[in-house]
Design a protein that fits this description.
The chain has no helices and 22 strands. By secondary structure, it is an all-beta fold. The chain has an 11-stranded mixed beta sheet with strand order 1-4-7-3-9-11-13-15-17-19-21, with no helix packed on it. Strand 5 and strand 6 (53-57) form a beta hairpin. The N and C termini lie far apart (49 Å).
């Protein structure tokens, strides 16, 4: 990534990534600028007029954004890593793996690889995760409609899960925990609210 561009966006900009055709890395920092490192990218900065910073990237893209930024990525063809972004995250389609660390609220569409979130201060939701999923230390609620692989939950403030194709492991859920279907084993403990599992394919412990 030889090309670096800096945009003076303010402390809480809206950043829209229309299509990233490689891997995407987003890291929060204390500056009021967005710094983009990418070999082939086009950016349109409308933040001065109350709009968003809009980015198209034909390869890998690395961003440093203010802690308070809100990010919306429509399509990413590779893996995604996001850290220390306190604004809202909206990720529509990720074709690789997704990892979130120390974020705020996250609304996810389809993740075609594995998904992991560590330390989220808001709700975390996803429509479809085709690989394994794990959520650790989420202050808000976790809501997953479909997880094709295994699911691991620890220290979340409640959880609502539709379908889990593999095994389920849940510990220290500080609220209600409801799951519709688990294809494999379900191992659940330390749920402070109500727990309900409509269907478990193998053992429930």
């Amino acid at each position: 990534m030889n090309n670096t561009h800096s945009f003076p966006t303010g402390a809480a900009p809206d950043v829209i990534l229309h299509h990233v055709k490689g891997d995407l890395s987003i890291q929060g920092w204390s500056q009021s600028d967005v710094v983009m490192a990418a070999d082939e990218a086009v950016a349109d900065d409308q933040t001065g007029g109350g709009g968003a910073l809009e980015i198209h990237c034909d390869g890998d893209c690395r961003l440093q954004v203010p802690f308070g930024a809100s990010v919306h990525a429509l399509v990413v063809s590779g893996d995604v890593r996001v850290g220390q972004v306190n604004g809202s995250l909206t990720l529509d389609e990720i074709k690789g793996d997704l990892q979130l660390k120390m974020v705020g609220m996250a609304s996810l569409g389809e993740i075609k690889g594995d998904f992991a979130v560590y330390h989220a201060d808001g709700d975390v939701s996803a429509k479809r995760i085709r690989g394994d999923a794990q959520a650790h230390i989420v202050s808000g609620a976790v809501s997953f409609e479909n997880v094709d692989g295994n699911l691991r939950l620890q220290h979340t403030s409640g959880a609502l899960v539709g379908n889990v194709g593999g095994d389920l492991l849940a510990r220290h859920i500080q609220g209600d925990f409801h799951v519709e279907n688990v294809g494999g084993d379900a191992n659940v403990g330390n749920v402070e609210g109500s727990f309900a599992a409509a269907n478990v394919g193998d053992d429930l412990a």
